[in-house]
Amino acid sequence: MSPSITGTEPSTIIRNAAKRSSISVKATETLWRLKEGGAFVKFTHDGGVSTSDVEKVLKQYLNDQPVKPWWSPWRGMNVSLVKGRPWVEDLFHLPTPRLRVEFVARKPGVEPIELSQEQLYELFRPYGKLNDIVVQPSDSKVLPKFAYLDYAEMRTAVMARNCLHGFVVEETGTRLRLKYERKIKAHWIRDWIVNHPRIVIPILAAIVAGITVAIFDPIRTFFVKAHITRALDIQENSWYKWFMDHATNFIPWHGKPRDDDGMEAVWDDRKENIEQIQTWLMETADTFIIIQGPRGCGKRELVIDQALKDRKYKLVIDCKPIQEARGDSATINAAAAGVGYKPVFSWLNSISGMIDMAAAGSTGIKTGFSETLDSQLAKIWNTTGTALRQIALSQRHKDDKDANLEDDEWLEEHPELRPVVVIDNFLHKSQEGGVVYDKISDWAARLTTSNVAHVVFLTHDVAYSKSLSKALPDRVFHQIPLSDCSPQVAKKFVLRHLDADVADDPAPKDGSPKRYPSQTRTDLQELDTCINLLGGRLTDLEFLARRIKTGETPTKAVHEIIDQSASEILKMYIFGIDDADSRHWSPEQAWLLIKKLADKESLRYNEMLLDDTFKSGGERTLRALEQAELIAIVSSPSGRPSLIRPGKPVYHPAFKRLTNDRVLRSRLDLAVLNELVKVENATIEKCEGELLRLSEIEGRPALIASRVQYLLAKLAKSQKAIEKYEYEMGACKKVLSQEH
């Protein structure tokens, strides 16, 4: 906008001021200084007034009638007389509140005189308030000499610089050369950050956390929802399903999977369990559903393939890869993969840990960059819980009868629409550390009590209540114990597994009825005897059926399975103990159980604890062997351990097979006898030590006679036991020396 229109034209202002004061002043030329926000104005006057009087007239006029530009409506224009010789330049020198005043000699070869602070103040104060005057240090060798003047406002510094540049101080003959000086030093932001780590590092950590929450959390929630709803899974696409349903018509190699061959017989037998689970999922009881049974009994198939086959939204979390992961990063990756949580930056945790350690060492405070395994797992489970809640609430509609209910009330009223979370292999290798299981239990309790989802635990550990009761201490769990199949169901399973291969074959062209392997094979009469040996474990039955399909007779197949189980027992529990710290039992303890269970199908729990081999840490050893599945501990109705049985039904004949090996039995019996001899020798040594101390008592009072007799009897008993053990050891050594 033109100055003539806004009333800020310098010639107009001078003319109006001269007219008002009756002086003869006329502007002849205006030099605009746009980058400094001002202008130089050349004027003429008749000599009747001095230039200082002209300055006073203009100042008075601008004070009485302020002229305010449109871009600065709160401050009026100002004017000052130019006393020096201004340097009109177009360099990129932007104005600053600080001026550098250099003292230059008026004539070459003459030493300039430096002005004092008082002289500088007297010269420069009329143009505006000064904050500080900094003179050059006396020991500085920088030429020309200089001083710094800090104005309170930049406009006053601009005025002073343009009016006094080139001014000659008459008293000293010194010429002043002025220029703007940047007060802000280079890299001040970087230097401030480096010099204030206690402030910067926590702020930076908060910014990183904020960015993570604002950007990555919604993305992760989306991927978890897609994992649960299978929105990104091509197999759930309707076109893909239609194509695969009709693929058998024109793709000869395509066929439906037969992983469930023969399972119909099992599901018929467990129909009540399936219906019970489905009934619980329709109830509002905020508690856990627990399916407990040995490995290979069909827990996962029972729940996922049968009880939940009509459930649209279900999430299956397998604890096995999470617990078996080595290191925090691998554990986080396994947990994230189980729920579809991504992106995951677990590799940054080690880097941030080093940064955190370095910062703590230098500043004395933790930055919060690194996160513990607990916090990382909690973040994964919390994000999954958010996704589950959104999925559950996505089934609400505005036209529902209960549309006026709050979200929490609606979730409580509709248990049939909640997603189902299935936690498989719960307490797998729980003896190696329970942080994963503690976090899962607490998270599952929050899901259940807030009515976000139903939670079903699948576990082989009979002591699951100890872990889950910490998360829900005031609840009674819904429990279904699964056992092995009965002989009748096991036989049906094997037969249907054999017949499944020809179930889809076309009928004979001659019109005769289709004949199945269960009708044509004569060796299947052996199945009853074989199943009695093998037991009703589904994994073993499926293995048997596959071997029979290859042409083996049932008897041969069962014997092969028993031999294989015997080899696994030796490798896992007897000879494969390389690291004593990782196992809580000795080969002698495992062999003693094998030997006793070969003779009896069950042992009394407390009777085994009384055996000398299990005197030290017996209960811990038995629990460890139960976790390793060599044995199974059966509890009484009151909950106390009562019986010990083989870990699998097939282990009972395998135990017999091992004990029938004379060389193996002699070798391991010899090791057990050596341990028993050590126990008796320790007892004798203890008795002898006490007898020696009693003999040192002066006078040998009659009161200690009974104690002496007791110790002598105990010593004699141990000695007889040692003689008996050594006799048995001799027989074992004889077998080892004569047989191979």
From TrEMBL:
Look up the coiled coil feature and give its residue ranges: none
The organism sits in which domain of life? Answer: Eukaryota
Q: Where in the cell is it found?
A: Mitochondrion inner membrane
> What InterPro entries does the database record attribute to this sequence?
Mt_escape_2_C, Nucleotide-bd_a/b_plait_sf, RBD_domain_sf, RRM_dom, Yme2_C, Yme2_RRM
RRM domain residues are: 100-183
Q: Which SMART domains match?
A: RRM
Q: How does it sit in the membrane?
A: Single-pass membrane protein
Query: Quick check: keyword RNA-binding in the entry?
Result: yes
Q: Name one GO biological process term.
A: mRNA processing
CDD domains xref list:
RRM_Yme2p_like
Provide the GO MF annotations for this entry: RNA binding
Gene Ontology annotations for the cellular component aspect, listed alphabetically: mitochondrial inner membrane
Question: What keyword terms does UniProt attach to this protein?
Answer: Membrane, Mitochondrion, Mitochondrion inner membrane, mRNA processing, RNA-binding, Transit peptide, Transmembrane, Transmembrane helix
Q: Name one Pfam family in it.
A: RNA12
> Record's PANTHER family?
MITOCHONDRIAL ESCAPE PROTEIN 2
Role summary: Plays a role in maintaining the mitochondrial genome and in controlling the mtDNA escape. Involved in the regulation of mtDNA nucleotide structure and number. May have a dispensable role in early maturation of pre-rRNA.
Family affiliation = Belongs to the YME2 family.
The protein here is known as Mitochondrial escape protein 2
**What species does this protein belong to?**
Periconia macrospinosa
